[in-house]
TrEMBL record:
PANTHER family: PHENYLACETIC ACID REGULATOR-RELATED TRANSCRIPTIONAL REPRESSOR, TRANSCRIPTIONAL REPRESSOR PAAX
InterPro entries referenced in this protein's UniProt entry, alphabetically: PaaX_C
Name of the protein in question: Transcriptional repressor PaaX-like C-terminal domain-containing protein
A Pfam short name: PaaX_C
Residue stretches making up the Transcriptional repressor PaaX-like C-terminal domain: 32-111
Amino acid sequence: MLREAGVHEEAQIFRSEYLAGGDLPTLVRQAWDLDEVAREHEAFVSAFTAPPSADPIVRVSTLVHTWRQILLIDPALPAELLPPGWIGLRAAELFHRQHAEWEPAATREWERISRQPR
């Protein structure tokens, strides 16, 4: 696939496997500030369970933009490496639920305002 895309020579491919050493939860805490990631998820949940903007485009744009910022810091670890009751799972469910609910109205509004006058 990389050859077909013409990027094989520039690509770096790594495979890792945990073999031994200290416990994995300690390693995870050393590698990522999960408390900070949890605070970002909590802020997301708080922001997107509050009454939304009346403008459907603003609503969806803000939702997606905020979610993408969280994805930059969340390592998306397997559940067994996350603290019990990890808020990121609830935040992800909220994102998907709100996006599914809000996106159709945003699309309709975009189509309405982007039509060329006749």
